[in-house]
Every structure is written in C-alpha cells, then in structure tokens.
Amino acid sequence: MNHSVVALFRHPVKRVISAFLFRDDDVEIMVPTGFARNRVAQNPPNFNMTKEADRFRSYVKRQPNPIVAYADPPFIRSAMTKMVLGYNSGFNITLTDEELAEAKRRVVHDFAFIGLTEEYNASLTLFHKQFGVSHPNVKGYEIFI
User: Fold this and answer.
1) SS3 at position 52
2) Which of 22, 47, 44 is nearest to 36 (CA)?
3) pLDDT, tens only, 21-30
4) Cβ contact 115:7 at 8 Å
5) Cα–Cα distance between 142 and 97 in angstroms, integer?
6) What does R_g of the chain's alpha carbons equal in angstroms?
7) 141 vs 136, higher pLDDT
8) Are 20 and 79 in contact (CB under 8 A)?
9) DSSP letter for each residue of 103-134
10) pLDDT at 9 over 80
11) The dihedral sign for the CA sequence 90, 3, 124, 145
C-alpha cells in the first residue's frame, strides 16, 4: 500500500461507553448498522433489522450490568480492528489470530497517519506538521473528554 490511509483511533473502552450512552434520554443505545447484516441472508425477506436492534437494546437494558451486556457480543467488540480489515464495524464475527496479526501489520505499515480522538488537537497539529500544511485555527473544534 502507498500509505494513503489516515485515521483517528479512539480508546476502545471510551468508544463502547460513548456508543452505550449514545442518547442521554435513555431511549436508544447505538447498535452498529451492520450488526445483523450477516444474519439477514439466513432469514426470510421479512427480516427487520430495526426490530432486531430494538430487541438487542431491550435485552441490554434488562441486564444487571447493562454496559457489560452491551460490550460483550461479537458485533460490538473490536470495531476499529474490523474496520482496519475492511469489515463493517458491526459484523457479527469473532476475529481470528491471523486477522488480528494482519490488522496490526496494516496499522504499522500501511497507514500514513494515526491520530487519537482523545488527543484531537495534538493529533491535528501533528498531522499538519507531518504533511507540511498550514495549521488552521482549531478552537472551534476542540474536544473536551
């Protein structure tokens, strides 16, 4: 690859917490768009992903420790690693050791730049310095975590 990939990675625990608290009105827990896609092929044409997502949300909310129940299924785990490999983050798969090794190889050898969401301003500054472009005023884009 020609090092053309640029990414901002987020700490996985913070990503899960953010998705779990997607809406602060306690109405909706974020469910990745592709979470049921590989099951659609195994179901009749009337399969409804919205109902499946609602069923998952309901299940999570009934658990004694909802955030742990939310983080456990394969379609929630390893979202960034799945995306590095070209999968939808919500695919209901468990990654193999070979796939994990390939993801690590891609991050080390194929990415031109990796920033951290938790260090957004520093990442943006480093990006501009690394690629020799002027640094815009980022005050309007500051993130406080």
Assistant:
1) helix
2) 47
3) 876 555 567 7
4) yes
5) 37
6) 18
7) 136
8) no
9) HHHHHHHTEEEEEEGGGHHHHHHHHHHHHT-P
10) yes
11) positive
Tens of pLDDT, residues 65-94: 998 998 888 888 888 899 899 888 888 888
Q: Which residues, 6+ apart, have CB-to-CB distance to 15 below 8 Å?
A: 79, 80
The residue type found at 67 is I
- The residue type of 84 is V
For residue 9, CA distances in Å to 13, 45, 54, 103, 140 come to 12, 36, 28, 13, 21
88 touches 33 (CB < 8 A): yes
pLDDT in tens, 28-69: 677 776 665 555 555 556 667 778 788 888 888 899 999 899
